[in-house]
Amino acid sequence: MVAPGIGVVLERCVFRPLSVRGGDPTRTLVASIGVFVLLVGGAALLWGQGARDDAPVLLPAEPWGQLAVVAVLAAGVGAVVRRTRFGRELRAVVDDRRLAVLTGVDADRVAAAGWAFGSFTAGLTGSCWRRTCGSTRTGCRCS
Questions:
Q1: Where is the signal peptide (predicted)?
Q2: Do 15 and 28 form a contact (C-beta atoms < 8 A)?
Q3: Model confidence at 138, in pLDDT bands (50, 70, 90)?
Q4: Residue from 28, 80, 106 nearest 97 by CA
Q5: pTM for this predicted structure
Q6: Is 133 helix (H, G, I), strand (E, B) or coil?
Q7: DSSP letter, residue 123
Q8: Per-residue b/e over 78-94, b at no fewer than 16 CB within 10 Å?
């Protein structure tokens, strides 16, 4: 999967420098919007406008199968965040990065793993959306 790698690169090149410099939420928001525009524009240049008909099928086509995948993913995320050391570290970094570092948490590693997982989830969501909404050459049509 390419999505987790993109998430790690974005965290290292864009969002980590912002958090090290003080973490002003306005700058992070503007950077997020800029990354979004860059990724959408890059995808349109690379693959063209609209959804592709030759995208790989990663999930079942029926809605119940997709719902099952989403339910298992949500339960897994909930269990990891609530019951593991990594989950505690992730919550600590999100709440107060400096304090988490003072307690011995490797905030950079935790943030990179969080971005990788978030990007994976976004890719999975895109796959679900593509299976739910067929594609045409002019864009996506939901049926």
A1: none
A2: yes
A3: very low
A4: 106
A5: 0.68
A6: strand
A7: H
A8: eeeeeeeeebebbebbe
